[in-house]
Design a protein that fits this description.
By secondary structure, the protein is α/β, with parallel strands linked by helices. Helices cover 38% and strands 19% of the residues. Strand 2 and strand 3 form a beta hairpin.
């Protein structure tokens, strides 16, 4: 058995699992998501666009290996809301220990945070969102809203719930499984 695994078992016990999670936030709002569409030659596409600025933040984590995910909605992005999120995540994980990859946003790296014992933060390099697999998940979710008009945040929340419930763990794993992450996890597990 690898020395790291033996140390892990001595520190945490055999009943606990070590999990790798990726965390980030995204803002969702009433402004219509637009993009390119395929049309017949010479036909100009028409789509209604709403420019309202009401929005909320979706905080989330994804486990690339299994496709498990956990999301919560908050009214803003700040240290207090992030603390609430990591406390809820810690409770959701139960006895499991999680390495949690996140960016270096001010709300994530402040000394005002009290990290729960079962979460170990690992900051990715600054200005490198492409390293965080949950960014693909946010992109996929927002693509589902392309061209849809929501008049109220309640309508948007209902549609978001639909989208999140329809994503299977296999799809979530496919969206978030970067080869370099899976190779590292499989290599670490082979010891």
């Amino acid at each position: 058995m690898a020395p790291a695994l033996l140390t892990y078992q001595r520190l945490f016990g055999k009943g606990q699992r070590l999990r790798y999670l990726c965390q980030d936030e995204t803002r969702l709002g009433l402004k219509t998501e637009t993009g390119k569409v395929i049309m017949a030659f010479g036909v100009k596409p028409y789509a209604p666009v709403l420019w309202k600025r009401d929005n909320f933040w979706l905080y989330g984590v994804v486990e690339p290996l299994s496709g498990w995910h956990f999301c919560q909605e908050y009214d803003r992005l700040n240290t207090q809301r992030f603390q609430e999120f990591i406390d809820a995540l810690s409770h959701q994980l139960g006895d499991d220990i999680a390495l949690i990859q996140l960016d270096q946003a001010g709300a994530h790296v402040t000394s005002a945070l009290h990290w729960p014992d079962n979460l170990i933060p690992v900051c990715q390099p600054a200005h490198s969102p492409e390293l965080n697999p949950i960014e693909r998940v946010w992109q996929f979710i927002k693509q589902q809203f392309k061209g849809e008009v929501f008049l109220t945040l309640k309508e948007l929340r209902e549609r978001l719930d639909q989208v999140l419930q329809q994503i299977t763990p296999e799809e979530m794993s496919s969206l978030s499984s970067y080869t370099f992450i899976l190779e590292a996890l499989f290599y670490a597990a082979s010891y």
